Description:
alpha/beta; eight-stranded mixed β-sheet; 32% helix; globular; binds flavin-adenine dinucleotide
Amino acid sequence: MHDYLRYSTVLLRGSTAVMTGYSALRVFIEGMRGQTGWAPAWRSPAPKSRYDVIIVGGGGHGLATAYYLAKSHGVRSVAVLERGWLGGGNTGRNTTVIRSNYYYPESARLYDLALGLYEGLSRELNYNIMFSQRGVVVTAHSRHEMESAARWGGAMNLNGIDTQLLSVAEIKARIPVLDCSPGARFPVFGGFVQARAGTARHDAVAWGYARAADRLGVDIVQNCEVQGFRRSAGGRVTGVETSLGVIEADKVAMVAAGHSSVLAAMAGFSLPIRSYALQAFVSEPLKPVIDTVLLSMATGIYISQSDKGGLVLGGPLDHYQSYAQRGNAQTIRAVAAAVADQMPSLGRVRMARHWAGIVDVVPDSSPILGETPVPGLYINCGWGTGGFKAIPAGGTLLAHHLATGKAHPIAEPFGLKRFETGALIDEAAASGIAH
Ligand SMILES: Cc1cc2nc3c(=O)[nH]c(=O)nc-3n(C[C@H](O)[C@H](O)[C@H](O)COP(=O)(O)OP(=O)(O)OC[C@H]3O[C@@H](n4cnc5c(N)ncnc54)[C@H](O)[C@@H]3O)c2cc1C
């Protein structure tokens, strides 16, 4: 036994240098040596006076942009400036649904790029993002909704996105907790499923990108608020004014979700964005009751179950614009009533937590990607209630634009210019997004 321990200690000491990645073996070894070998997942550097690229906003999209800039384009003089903590915005507040079931070909290309990247992300980042492809089922509750669902599913198939229409019996078999009886308050007429869709751990997505970007030399600076922009006599952006001082840069990217309009105002232009609180809820832990994600067209509520057993619920936006990160009671009541109506057996489940994030809503419910009216200043925003699912694509596409100076073909239709040309991608109407 003594020899075994001595041998193990030598082995563990020898492994220290090489064991910087995360793995099951590493967990085992750290368990053996009292968890003494873990290093912080990313550094906390003081900001330098200048970078090639500054990214404002340390949510998933900002961190992914930094990672792909460094990894795919070799641009390593990059800082991510976050006024709070990483993922403390919507990335750490969302209900983690990942799907690419949109209507128009432009959206299908964008969101399916993201879904494809999510499929390999744990391996790519060496960080378990717990991507669970449990499928997303959309249910229709009237003849008209069923017709829309069939159209929507048909468009997805035409766009090459997997989908399958479901009968009432098939939905009942998949989601026994849903009241599918003819007398139900919201009778089920059918629906469709995207089987490759699912959920992932939101914090892990932010942390995984942060760790991977840090390892490539990106400086991640938390508690650093951007308070203004520096511009040259010609109007080009030359840096940012922050709570930690002025930092210069060749290019700056605004990736600030619900606060994009505030930053745009600082830079001297306006965006077609309205900011609202979107709420989410988690219940007390239950035994498994639902093994997919359910989204109801009639009420706009959606529900899944976390690995800890909590039901994760969401619904429509709050009714008025706000920057206050808390929700109002009207929406809470509406979501609770819809859940109880559609899944009566859950009527007595207690909610454990509830919170809100400020989402950036664009009139056509599609994101804004690319250049702004200020030369050298780029933007990624407008994901509204659905940008978690797009993080790998948002990062890839903005990094491409920053590094090459040209919009990626997939991002091209999502530029600000569409609000001048009228070439909107109106997912709001097409795929039944209520917000
Ligand atoms: C309750 C809720 C549920 C949702 N559910 C889903 C879902 O199931 N699926 C899905 O796909 N999407 C969902 N979303 C939407 C999704 O969370 C967002 O679209 C996505 O996280 C946006 O990522 P981001 O990186 O652009 O923004 P954020 O994660 O919000 O990051 C922006 C960051 O910018 C920082 N910032 C702002 N101003 C400044 C400044 N002046 N200086 C420095 N930093 C600044 C903020 O602090 C913030 O951390 C949901 C959102 C909410 C609120």
